[in-house]
Amino acid sequence: MKKKKVGLPQPPITSIFLGNLEEFEKDHKQHEKLVEWHEKYGSTFGMLQGAHRVIVTSDMNILNEVFVKQFHTFQARMIHPSFVVDQVNGRQLTLFFSQGNQWKRLRALFASSLTISKIKSVEPIMEKAHDELYQVFKKNENKVIDVIPNILDMTFAFISRSALGINEEFGKSEYLHKIVNILGPEETSKSLISSFFAGTWDFLSITKHFQILQFLTVFREAFKLRDNIIKAITERENEPLTSTRRRDFLDFLREAQEEDFDTTNKPDLDMKIPKKITRDELIGASMAYLFGGADTTATLINYCLYEFTIHPECEEIILQEIDDYIKNEDDINYNNVKNLEFLDRFIKETGRLHPFAYLYVIFAFFYNQNIKIPLCL
């Protein structure tokens, strides 16, 4: 495919190797930088993140094309340019990183594996995590406390226990500490290894073989977590059928496991859509639960609490709605919570106002004869 210039405005290139990435990530204020560039260059502009050629837009017509008219074309997410991930042939891809038929297949498999009845089966785990959070708040009654770390402890307790059966003491999770370190890495320009991968993204077919270098960065913790997940999967594979252990999401996904399908065989993937996931994909899915579940959920809850403080009238409506459907602790279940329609709308509107994962959104290729444009919205 030939590349054609589209004449978009863009910030001046500040680094031959990193493009605009150093300026974009400075002091971890990416959102403020996007707003600044939007005001200066308009609703649609280009930028370079390492070797990633990116278009940023708030144009409603383009958004309508991406999310509605041509949604079938946009089947993958943009990943950070320093991540050495082969989104086409990677063996342990998740929904966050996969694309094309593989993305469609994984989404369908996960949706069928995690049915409502199976989600309901982990309600006791959720209730225990909520009760532990309540006890923390009760101990600090009438005191001013920072609720953010406590809420993160609660969401991670639920995710880790329900996804992998990890039972750590509430508020003292070693897993959570490692994940926080991974999710909050230093600026790319301050890491020689990350800068190398970001600047050589066009040569991914070669640089992907140097993934071992990432073990020297904060991602070494991710490799350790992966080993722990493999151990947990192996233990489940070897446990007797008479085991009385409480089943979790990992067990549900294992029911959809297939050992012999080769996801690197592109013709096979295109012509035969397998109805089970591979062991490598199972490992990747478990990693995605730990990394993608706890922090995003905690962030959304924190934003909801913030909106309560500036919109007390909404809080009153929600409290009344809860009183109408939930009379005591025994009434706190999936069906009754589903009836809280105003709360549901409030949460969705909060997520719209405060997009907590705006840097990890759609990455796609827009094809128009001889034009290929990576698109980040």
From TrEMBL:
InterPro entries associated with the record: Cyt_P450 (IPR001128), Cyt_P450_E_grp-I (IPR002401), Cyt_P450_sf (IPR036396), Cytochrome_P450_3A (IPR050705)
Keywords: Heme, Iron, Metal-binding, Monooxygenase, Oxidoreductase
UniProt cross-references to Pfam families, sorted A to Z: p450 (PF00067)
GO terms for MF: heme binding; iron ion binding; oxidoreductase activity, acting on paired donors, with incorporation or reduction of molecular oxygen; steroid hydroxylase activity
Domain of life per record: Eukaryota
PANTHER family assigned to the protein according to its UniProt record, in alphabetical order: CYTOCHROME P450 FAMILY 3, FATTY-ACID PEROXYGENASE
Family label: Belongs to the cytochrome P450 family.
Protein name, as recorded: Cytochrome P450
